[in-house]
Each structure stands twice: as structure tokens, then as C-alpha cells.
Design goal:
Layout (H helix, E strand, L loop, with lengths): L2 H13 L12 H11 L5 H10 L11 E2 L2 H10 L8 E7 L7 E10 L2 E7 L7 E4 L2 H15 L4 E8 L5 H8 L15 E6 L2 E6 L9 E8 L2 H11 L4 E8 L1
Antiparallel strand pairs: 1-2, 2-3, 3-4, 4-5, 6-9, 6-10, 7-8, 8-9
Helix pairs in contact: 2-4
């Protein structure tokens, strides 16, 4: 197992003990079929994901998105008339009202993974989501199992005057005791410590962004205000909503 995936598994097990007991991996034949659809080697993280939980993701399941090889293969057989050599479908949105499916941009590799976007089948318009599928899964897990569970939460925006806001955020929280369970780029942040957790994100672009949308949670309002006070020495902090 790659060290990044080993670290991710340990982090997920910390969030939800024995979480892997609910996973069912895809078979080697199923993974080979997906690779044939891609027409090129799969990103290493995606190969790991399929092997570990491709058939069933257990507690990590998305409410309306099916990431299973069987559903992906069926979509290519039944709905996708002209497969793209660039975009690989990896998650099928079952909600017919907003059928924005999850795709890889295989021409945009990053950290053993690839850019993730949303779009409808046959729709040229795309919505960029995360630089990597690894970030997307970890971000969602942190939100579901910690950020939205802790007693107090606030949402808002970190702003920079022109520098890379993500790099400034790293400098700001260096002494606050947060771990970062997976490596992320300029458009996402996932931070964890015993009494608090934070996720940050903004749609990926070609250059670093000057804003990040954040969701910070902890044991008390006072603890969150202390964290935001430290961050505020490096960045402009705009809190939009408190949840208590």
C-alpha cells in the first residue's frame, strides 16, 4: 500500500473505528474493465479505492452517487454514446433532477490521483470540484463524522490580499496542533486535532486562489474564537454562520 493510502486508512479508522469492515472491494477483473474504459492506466489512488471499497463503501457511501464498477460499466454501455479519452466517469448520480455525475479529468494528474469534476452526460459544461479524489473522500468523511458532530460549528471565508491563501493558512495554524491527514494543494484543507476539526475548499483553478470557504467545529465557542483569532493574524476572517 502506498504511504498516502496507508495514512488515509488510519485516519478513517480514527474517525470511525473498524470502518473497513463495511467495505467491499472490486475484483481484479472489474478494475481491469474500468481501466479499459479509461484507455490508459488508472490513477494509483483510484486503483486503491476500487480494490478496497469499489463495490461498497460502507459508512463512506454517498447518498445518491454510485461509485461501483458495475454502475459505471452499465452507464458506458447504456448512456454514453461517445466516450471521452480525457474524462472518465467514476460516480453515477442517481438523482434525476440534478444528474451531475462525478468524473476524473485524466489529463490533470496530481499526487498519484487526478482532478475531479461534475458534469452531465453529453454536457460540455463542467464544474470543477477537487484536485484529487483522495481529497474529496477525506473532506466528506471529516465533515460527516467530525465537523458536523462536534457541539459548535461556524462557517465562513478566509481571504488573502494577493498571496496563496492556502499557504498563509498553513503558516497561521502551524502552532495550533492540527494534523493534516492527507496532502492537499492550494484549493483544499483538512485539519484535525482532538477538540476541533476544520475543512476548507474552493473550486480548483490554474493559479492559487485568494479565498477559501471554511467550516470549523470544536468543543466550545471560546475554543473556535481562539483558533480564528490566531488565523486572523495572517488572513482576513469572515464568519458567516454559527451553529450551536
Amino acid at each position: 500500500m502506498h504511504p498516502l493510502e496507508d495514512a488515509l486508512e488510519r485516519f478513517l479508522a480514527r474517525l470511525v473505528p473498524s470502518i473497513d469492515a463495511g467495505w467491499e472491494g472490486a475484483t481484479p477483473d472489474e478494475i481491469a474493465e474500468i481501466e479499459a474504459l479509461a484507455g490508459r492506466p488508472l490513477p494509483p489512488f483510484y486503483s486503491w479505492f476500487l480494490a478496497r471499497m469499489g463495490r461498497y463503501m460502507g459508512a463512506l457511501n454517498f447518498a445518491s452517487v454510485d461509485f461501483s464498477p458495475a454502475r459505471i460499466k452499465a452507464c458506458y454501455q447504456e448512456e454514453i454514446e461517445e466516450p471521452s479519452p480525457r474524462y472518465l466517469l467514476i460516480g453515477y448520480e442517481n438523482d434525476p433532477v440534478v444528474p451531475m455525475h462525478t468524473w476524473y479529468d485524466l489529463d490533470s494528474p496530481s499526487r498519484g490521483d487526478a482532478l475531479v469534476l461534475s458534469r452531465g452526460i453529453g454536457d460540455p459544461l463542467t464544474q470543477l470540484e477537487f484536485e484529487t479524489f483522495r481529497e474529496m473522500l477525506t473532506w466528506k468523511a471529516m465533515r460527516n463524522f467530525k465537523v458536523e458532530v462536534l457541539p459548535v460549528r461556524c462557517e465562513g471565508i478566509f481571504k488573502s490580499d494577493g498571496d496563496d491563501v492556502r499557504a498563509q493558512l498553513d503558516r497561521a495554524i502551524e502552532g495550533l496542533g492540527f494534523d493534516q491527514p492527507v496532502p492537499t494543494g492550494s484549493f483544499c484543507g483538512i485539519f484535525d486535532r482532538a477538540d476541533a476539526a476544520m475543512t476548507c475548499s474552493v473550486a480548483p483553478r490554474n493559479t492559487p486562489e485568494q479565498i477559501l470557504f471554511f467550516d470549523l467545529a470544536g468543543d466550545s465557542v471560546a475554543a473556535l474564537r481562539r483558533i480564528l483569532g490566531v488565523i486572523g493574524k495572517e488572513l482576513e476572517v469572515e464568519v458567516e454562520t454559527w451553529h450551536r
